[in-house]
Amino acid sequence: YNIRKLKSKYNPRGLSLLDIEKIKLFDTDLYSHLRRSQFYFLFSYFSGGMNFTDMAYLESKEIRGERINYYRRKVNTGLSVYISEPIRNILDYFVSIKPTENNYIFPILDSEIHKSPQQQKDRIKKCLKEYNLNLKEIQRQLGIQDNLTSYSARHSFAQTLKNKGV
Asked: Are 141 and 152 in contact (CB under 8 A)?
């Protein structure tokens, strides 16, 4: 029995700082349908690699002062993220476009529509698929060679820390 045969050939890796900078500077005025996906990616990156599902469930009440305190749904672990200037700008954008009665920060879930856990799960799955398709378009527009997915924001954050010796 050889365990090396079970190892996946896919080796996820983070984007270079140059590619992250391209995404930051991507002008969505010509591609307004990609703006949310660009902001989701950057929010995930700047918030320490926050998972898309955790972003979907993020509520206004979890913002306390200069921090976002939330639970990682997959492992039920409490995490805290400092609200840096890039995160603040993204939050301000989504606050400006959201309906006031919705508790969620990002326009993924709507508390009036997605009430049951199954409805929430289905909606997140649908939005994640659209998000990843939009990231593929951003990747093509920017000429990024590495695979651009929702998960690559998480890997990119970790890779940036590693490259900086953290």
From this structure: no
